[in-house]
Design brief:
The complex is a heteropentamer of chains A (about 150), B (about 350), C (about 500), D (about 100) and E (about 120).
Chain B lengths: L2 H27 L3 H21 L3 H25 L10 H21 L11 H4 L1 H12 L5 H9 L1 H22 L19 H23 L8 H19 L1 H7 L2 H24 L13 H6 L13 H31 L3 H9 L1
Chain C lengths: L10 H24 L3 H29 L2 E4 L10 E4 L1 H28 L5 H20 L3 H20 L8 H30 L4 H8 L6 H18 L7 H8 L2 H26 L5 H28 L3 H21 L3 H31 L11 H4 L1 H15 L5 H15 L3 H27 L14 H19 L2 H16 L3
Antiparallel strand pairs in C: 1-2
Helix pairs in contact in C: 1-2, 1-4, 2-3, 2-4, 3-4, 3-10, 3-13, 3-18, 3-19, 4-5, 4-10, 5-6, 5-10, 6-8, 6-9, 8-10, 9-10, 9-12, 10-13, 11-12, 11-17, 12-13, 12-16, 12-17, 13-15, 13-16, 13-18, 13-19, 15-17, 15-18, 16-17, 16-18
Chain D lengths: L1 H22 L3 H25 L6 H24 L18
The chains are: A mainly alpha (about 150), B mainly alpha (about 350), C mainly alpha (about 500), D mainly alpha (about 100), E mainly alpha (about 120).
Chain lengths: ~150, ~350, ~500, ~100, ~120
């Protein structure tokens, strides 16, 4: 039971990863495959971020630097919090995975845009975005080209 | 953090992750692409909320503007140009993919036993470099937002790469969709019964406000969540809103596609240029401590910004400011280019091309 | 040629050379995207690629003099900051990328005019330079996550560039899409693997990672990280069962991109994999050795046999050569699987040789494609008569591919076979021999058609390639010959690189 | 404590919306669910800022509201005009249908 | 004073959350698109207003209040506009309201009289 509690996030990541991969491999529709790819890539975000969470931590924007307002807020909204750690002693979550995942999300949207653009061109050129139909069109074209005099 | 808040945080974590699983399963199951896109947009809202629970507001910000915003709009544009329904796949064709996914999943499950417990502050991931950033960022960089400090300075080279990836996407989409048959972009006769005065007025008010907000996000990035990337996407969303309401022709008249492409390239030049300036001033690439020449550095009173014991804060400050500007330029211009690419094509133009 | 004696740049410049080799093509790409005309874009591309190659040469000389170079970015020492870390191996691969990139940039002037719409030229050049910068960065970086970023920098533009081949051959579009899907899955697998290693070590710097992995041999997360990294880079490197994207992308993309990718893209990924295999993972980790022996070697052998056979039966010339590339990757992995310094250095040398010869072959085909838009093998009947120089250059590349003595390919192949014999792996020797025979079969078919067959009546007549193509083409072919006689330059770097990896291993 | 109750209520509402988004027989049901889900997410994020003592996160809630607005317009154009490029006309014709 | 504000704000937040839950239940249980839109849009704006008001009472007065106000304005803009556009699009595509039709309604026991009030009772 406690193993589930400590590794629940990873189990979910695995499920999402499998779902994304399954869509990419099983679907013949190019758009659907791109959606699967986006799902697959986003699961890595969950994976990294899960590493970086520190229980009882807070976002790595240092409170003391937000000046009097930050202190006042921290004291007003959660007095126990400040009483326990003080504004100086607040525990922060690990910022490094956040930075990495920012990059990964950007890469993901870049891939999505380029992939969908290519899919649109495929549709313009072949009249379809289904792999099977594209293959069929290609095969017919190849057979027509073959008995060239 | 108090115990009830801690428990609430974990409960939120579990609840949101379960939502993600349900949504992913639905995406697998549905054949309608529009439904899949809508579900993915909800997915990305949930995952952004989850990121907030995980104390990653910067990432949540990005996921929100990218996943729920740009990706959804781009995907809608794509299915307008292709089709909205996927062909049914017979179960026989799903066996091998299922096995492959199962294999990967099995490997991951096997590997989980070696992963640290969730939330463990002493895990290797949280104790080595990550902890070091929290301790040194204030001293080295002076920005309260450690994520910005790491993103802009410690791992600024990664961010340069990320900006270049965005430029590559801009080039890729422009190569694919930026030329060839275009939509006529003529104003429509107007569907009967439509009068969108409210929307038009609202949009007219909102566009400058959104850009103002983007600038706030841009310059607030070292103090709170946000930064060049998020601001760039928000600015692009303002332009996209303009195009959606007033039509693509009006928008391209204001911001021509060529100009957008040029700005995207210039953004990377700004970013890499900062690095080169640092080299010229005798430092390494992107070493902002050498961004300002010693003469300028000497004119700045000590302790004006950040830690008075560390003299180079102004270099870091301006360095991060400049590269964030480069990121803003590239990202906003690229998102606009991508939108132009997808929105500017129409099925009719394509059909005409095919008939020819 | 003694590399140590090469002082090709001022010391101050040499100190910054690693980053300039990456940054100059990056800025060049932006300049090319802003260029007013295709011609200006072409000139920017040539200059930027040339500067990058020059810097790579300066780095190579410095590495031979000083050993491994560390370059800290942002002034932060690793592991907090990102550092470039160039060893002799990396210097060699970057040099290959720089050289092929420069020649390809020169070649692009004529090739693009024939294959891509004129208004796209500037963007095309920009994408090409981005790919080059990304690959050099991938090779130089010492940070595992930074490598992912550069993997994507080099790939994302490339997907669209491959797809831009649709003007001549619309199958480029589905091929590019396939490439995108497979490439992204590969890169994502790599990220997952790096994530596991990060979770186990808390660092992203490869050297730091290696130091901290030392005691974690039995950790399941480390093993899974290893598997994901190898599988992910295997996709990018076209490791045998994961190579599905390669033939389509090479066969249908524009000539420029086929040539550049075939010569460099898989090499950069293989190099990164080698670094993980031999540098990052713990010495003598049971799973590492097991992988080399029981996975990499059989897959390499299967690639050699199966893909050579596919090349023999392929109908289209470029597809044939693309399959041959997968088979050659198999040769390289066979060299790796020997797990000793001589095998690794031979494999590195083979990578260089293969890069040069494949570049020459694809460039020759690109030169011919300017006059005849041919795809099938038969269409090339008798081109040697119309375009003798192009055909001869192609022939030299092909001879090197087979392993004819006096070419670079011969030396490379012989070194791997020698290392296999020395390591007592007779079966690897046998597979290599069989692969060479199969190579001879398909290369023989091509040569027969090109040189000894009459052109079909009524078929479009080939023309000799323009000078702008011939010069880089003959330089490439000449390099294949020159290094076949005096291989000291690549040899030195390969041996030094392999030795530096293995001397740290007990 | 009251904030926790508010968060719990929103989570329940969001779960119900997800059920509708997954089942939702027509696309309109899904869009409705997605849109309403977006609103609840905005509220949840704003509330979470209070729960964890960082109300500065309101920026993100604001962005969500904004994105929700733009996405809704995009969806509407998708259904009504099958095009993202056409302007929304002012003088459409007779009033009434959307009054 | 601060205490009173805390309780009032918290109460408003809980009330808003309850309204959201009720709306969601309506969206789940109502028989056709139009009734669901009705449930969602009303409770969205209402719930948001209550909750944001509550949050405004909890936090200090200043930039945060302004942001809350902006969020509120956005929701008030989006939600009705979206509901309107959605209903319009659904009607245009041929969906017809089902209220009042016993055959289609099945388990829903609303009478044909006063469909609006039936919906409201449920919410």
């Amino acid at each position: 039971m406690s193993w589930i509690a400590t590794h629940f996030n990873y189990v979910v990541v695995v499920i999402l990863m499998m779902a994304g991969l399954f869509i990419v491999f099983s679907s013949g529709n190019l758009i659907k495959r791109m959606i699967g790819l986006a799902l697959f890539q986003s699961s890595t975000a969950l994976f990294y971020i899960s590493f970086g969470k520190v229980s009882g931590g807070t976002a790595a924007i240092t409170l003391d630097a937000q000046g009097a307002e930050g202190q006042a807020l921290a004291a007003q909204l959660d007095p126990a919090y400040v009483a326990q750690f003080g504004v100086e002693g607040v525990v922060y979550s690990n910022p490094l995975p956040h930075v990495l995942i920012l990059t990964a999300i950007v890469v993901g949207v870049a891939t999505l845009a380029v992939g969908l653009a290519i899919a649109v061109r495929v549709r313009e050129s072949y009249g379809t975005v289904e792999s099977d139909e594209i293959d069929a069109v290609s095969r017919v074209a190849a057979e027509q080209a073959e008995p060239a005099p | 953090m108090t115990a009830p808040v801690l428990e609430a945080s974990f409960a939120l974590n579990v609840a949101l992750l379960l939502m993600l699983v349900v949504l992913a399963a639905a995406v697998v199951w549905t054949r309608s692409l529009l439904a899949a896109i809508l579900l993915m947009s909800v997915y990305s809202l949930v995952s952004a909320t989850w990121l907030m629970v995980m104390d990653a507001p910067d990432v949540a910000f990005t996921e929100a503007v990218v996943g729920a915003g740009i990706s959804t709009i781009v995907a809608l544009g794509a299915i307008l140009l292709t089709r909205g329904e996927a062909v049914r796949v017979s179960w026989k064709r799903q066996v091998v993919p299922g096995l492959l996914a199962g294999l990967v999943g099995g490997l991951l499950i096997y590997a989980m036993s070696g992963l640290p417990d969730f939330g463990d502050p002493a895990s290797p991931a949280n104790s080595h470099v990550g902890r070091a950033y929290l301790e040194t960022a204030k001293r080295d960089i002076g920005a309260p937002n450690v994520v910005t400090a790491v993103l802009g300075s410690y791992r600024g080279f990664d961010t340069l790469g990320e900006t270049v990836v965005i430029l590559a996407a801009c080039i890729g989409v422009a190569l694919m969709l930026g030329f060839g048959p275009r939509a006529t972009l003529a104003p429509p006769a107007g569907a009967p019964g439509d009068h969108h005065v409210v929307l038009r007025v609202t949009a007219k008010m909102l566009v400058p406000l959104i850009i103002l907000f983007a600038l706030y996000v841009q310059f607030h990035g070292d103090l709170g969540a946000g930064g060049g990337f998020q601001a760039g996407v928000i600015a692009a969303v303002a332009i996209i809103l303009h195009a959606l309401v007033f039509g693509l022709r009006e928008t391209t008249a204001a911001i021509p596609p060529q100009a957008a492409r040029a700005v995207a390239a210039l953004g990377v030049v700004v970013y890499a240029g900062v690095g080169i300036v640092c080299i010229v001033n005798g430092g390494g690439f992107l070493d902002y401590d050498h961004l300002l020449t010693p003469q300028i550095e000497a004119m700045i009173p000590a302790g004006l910004l950040g830690d008075p014991d560390k003299p180079h804060h102004w270099g870091q400050y301006f360095g991060i400011l400049a590269i964030e500007l480069g990121v803003l330029m590239t990202v906003s211009a690229t998102m606009i280019t991508i939108f132009y690419g997808f929105a500017g094509r129409t099925i009719d133009a394509i059909a005409a091309e095919l008939r020819r | 040629m003694q590399l140590e004696a090469l002082y090709v740049a001022q010391p101050a410049l040499t100190a910054q050379a690693p980053i300039l080799a990456i940054a100059v093509p990056l800025i060049g790409a932006c300049a090319a995207a802003l260029a007013p005309s295709g011609r200006a874009g072409w000139m920017i591309s040539v200059v930027a690629a040339m500067v990058s190659a020059w810097m790579a040469l300066a780095v190579a000389g410095e590495v031979m003099r000083e050993g491994v170079i560390l370059y800290q970015l942002g002034g932060f020492a690793p592991p907090a900051g990102i550092a470039l870390r160039v060893d002799a191996m990396g210097a060699l691969i970057a040099l290959l990328i720089g050289a092929v990139g420069t020649l390809a940039a020169v070649f692009s002037g004529h090739s693009l005019a024939a294959e891509v719409r004129p208004e796209k030229h500037t963007l095309f050049q920009a994408g090409f330079l981005l790919a080059q910068a990304g690959m050099v960065g991938l090779v130089y970086t010492g940070d595992a996550f930074n490598a992912f970023v550069f993997l994507e920098v080099s790939s994302i533009g490339t997907y669209a560039l491959v797809a831009a081949g649709e003007r001549r051959d619309r199958r480029a579009l589905p091929a590019a899409f396939n490439y995108l899907i497979m490439g992204t899955i590969g890169a994502t697998f790599y990220v997952i693997g790096v994530g596991f290693l990060y979770g186990a070590t808390g660092t992203l710097n490869m050297a730091d990672m290696a130091a901290r992995l030392g005691t974690l041999d039995q950790n399941a997360a480390v093993q899974a990280g290893f598997a994901f990294i190898v599988a992910g880079l295997g996709v990018k490197a076209a490791m045998f069962p994961l190579h599905g994207w390669l033939p389509g992308a090479y066969a249908h993309g524009p000539s420029l991109i086929s040539l550049f990718l075939a010569a460099t893209a898989t090499k950069a990924a293989i190099y990164l994999m080698a670094r993980f295999l031999f540098e990052v993972f713990p010495d003598g980790a049971a799973f590492g050795d097991m992988f080399l022996q029981w996975v990499l070697a059989p897959l390499g052998a299967a690639a050699v046999i199966v893909c050579s056979l596919q090349a023999v039966f392929a109908r289209e010339l470029r597809r044939m050569i693309a399959f041959s590339s997968v088979a050659q990757v198999g040769f390289i992995f066979l060299g790796f699987s020997l797990a000793n310094a001589s095998g690794l250095s031979a494999a590195l040398f083979y990578m260089t040789a293969h890069g040069l010869m494949k570049a020459a072959m694809f460039m020759a085909l690109g030169g011919l494609a300017i006059s005849i838009g041919a795809r099938r093998l038969e269409d090339f009947a008798g081109v040697a008569r119309e375009a003798p120089w192009t055909a001869v250059a192609f022939g030299i590349g092909a001879a090197s591919l087979v392993g004819t003595p006096l070419t670079m390919g011969f030396l490379a192949k012989w070194q791997i076979m020698e290392a296999a014999l020395a390591g007592g792996r007779i079966w690897i020797f046998a597979v290599m021999a069989a692969g060479s025979v199969l190579t001879l079969v398909y290369v023989g078919r091509i040569i027969e058609v090109m040189f000894f067959r009459e052109p079909a009546p009524g078929a479009p007549r080939a023309k000799e390639s323009p000078v702008g193509v011939l010069v880089p083409l003959l330089i490439l072919a000449g390099l294949s010959l020159w290094f076949g006689i005096d291989a000291s330059l690549p040899q030195q770097l390969a041996q030094a690189g392999a030795a530096s990896l293995f001397e740290v291993r007990p | 404590m009251l904030i926790v109750a508010g968060v719990a209520g929103l989570i329940v509402a969001m779960s119900l919306m997800i059920v509708r988004a997954v089942l939702g027989p027509s696309h309109y049901d899904r869009i409705l669910a997605a849109n309403s889900f977006g609103t609840k997410t905005v509220l949840l994020i704003a509330l979470m800022g209070y729960l964890f003592g960082r109300p500065a996160f309101l920026d993100i809630a604001l962005v969500y509201a904004l994105i929700n607005f733009v996405t809704t317009i995009a969806l509407m154009k998708f259904f009504r005009y099958r095009s993202l490029a056409r302007p929304l006309a002012v003088a459409g014709g007779e009033d009434g249908a959307d009054g | 004073m601060a205490d009173a504000l805390f309780w009032i704000g918290g109460g408003l937040i809980v009330a808003g959350a309850m309204l959201s839950v009720l709306g969601a239940a309506g969206v789940l249980r109502f028989p056709d698109v139009y009734t669901r839109i009705h449930a969602a849009s009303l409770t969205d704006t209402g719930g948001a207003t209550l909750m944001l008001l509550g949050m405004g009472l909890l936090g200090p007065f200043g930039l945060i209040t302004l942001k809350l106000l902006l969020v509120w304005a956005f929701i008030m803009l989006t939600s009705p506009a979206a509901a309107n556009a959605l209903a319009n699009a659904a009607f245009g595509s041929g969906h017809r309201p089902r209220i009042g039709n016993f055959q289609i309604m099945g388990e829903d026991k609303a009478t044909d009289a006063a469909p609006e009030s039936a919906g409201k009772e449920r919410a």
